[in-house]
Design goal:
The chain is α/β, with parallel strands linked by helices. Helices cover 40% and strands 18% of the residues.
Length: 317
């Protein structure tokens, strides 16, 4: 079922989760162990992140270095199929521009279509670790809107191979990312919102937000989107703070602010266990307020902390 179909049928705020593919070398059982504690809440869908290959230099026996490509978390398409088969729950794979040609993207989308997966969240993706700024594959998509249009073309039976006439039409429901605190590369919020509207006008059916810790920023974002004429559902993405170190790591990596009240509580903690408890309480209050606001879905980035998310969600349902 498509994400928008879930939303249309909902009588109350839905719950969804997001997971990382296991590190290469681990089995699908490690993912099931991660998700099992959350299945009692009957999530409407599970998002699965997508990861590009990274270049690294490996030292050889003769002392020289060899450049190799390493993909630490492969398997997104297969994981989505496994989740749908194992749990009978819809899966939403992330699709990114970086590191993939248009043809590779098309082939992966064909695999999804054959597997009966009809949702994708399209993203530009981050720069590779060895890049100072994002660089697309020379034969790939540069921006998320370009990737979105490629998916939209396939929904209309248009493929990269111009020899294909009257190709089979896919039926992907396309989501895009939104940034309540502005994408860090956008010069200002107005331009960031216009780029978001362009994606919606190009066929995006819903917006999934970057994590945030101040609900007022989300409320202001929704209001600004509506003022821009963006009418599609806007889903808040939520993550708990579980260590003191995250007070500096999260703002640096994700370009989000930590509210003063929350940072003060975390800084008072003597251990990471105390910090996890404080972060859990904050996330629960965030969730209650957002549910009261009437958000269509509470989407949780589990990222190795399923029990923290479980403790929050069980207080809501």
């Amino acid at each position: 079922m498509k994400v928008v179909e879930h939303l249309a049928q909902a009588k109350d705020t839905l719950i969804s989760f997001e997971v990382l593919p296991p590190l290469k070398g681990k089995t699908i059982s490690s993912l099931y162990d991660h998700l099992n504690p959350l299945m009692e809440f009957k999530p409407s869908w599970i998002n699965v992140t997508y990861h590009r290959s990274e270049s690294m230099f490996k030292k050889k026996a003769d002392g020289t270095f060899e450049k190799i490509e390493v993909r630490k978390r492969p398997g997104t398409v297969g994981i989505c199929a496994a989740i749908m088969n194992h749990y009978k729950i819809d899966a939403v794979p992330h699709f990114i521009c970086g590191g993939f040609t248009k043809r590779e993207t098309e082939d992966a989308l064909i695999d999804l279509d054959f597997l009966g997966i009809d949702n994708v969240l399209v993203l530009r993706g981050d720069a590779a670790k060895n890049e100072t700024a994002f660089e697309p594959d020379p034969k790939g998509n540069r921006y998320a809107i370009d990737l979105l249009k490629q998916v939209g073309n396939m929904n209309n039976g248009i493929y990269t191979d111009e020899d294909i006439q009257g190709g089979g039409k896919t039926r992907f429901c396309i989501g895009v990312a939104g940034y309540p605190e502005k994408h860090f590369e956008a010069p200002n919020m107005e331009i960031d919102l216009q780029r978001l509207k362009d994606k919606v006008d190009a066929g995006a059916e819903y917006i999934m937000t970057q994590m945030f810790f101040d609900n007022n920023k989300f409320f202001e974002f929704v209001k600004a989107c509506r003022a821009m004429g963006i009418t599609v559902p806007i889903i808040p993405g939520l993550k708990p703070i579980t260590t003191k170190k995250q007070l500096s790591v999260l703002p640096r990596l994700f370009h989000v602010d930590i509210p003063t009240d929350l940072s003060n509580e975390i800084m008072k903690c003597k251990t990471d266990l105390d910090a996890e408890e404080a972060g859990t309480k904050w996330l629960l209050q965030q969730s209650k307020e957002l549910k009261q606001f009437g958000v269509p879905v509470l989407h949780y980035y589990t990222l190795g902390k399923p029990n923290v998310i479980r403790n929050v969600v069980k207080e809501l349902v």
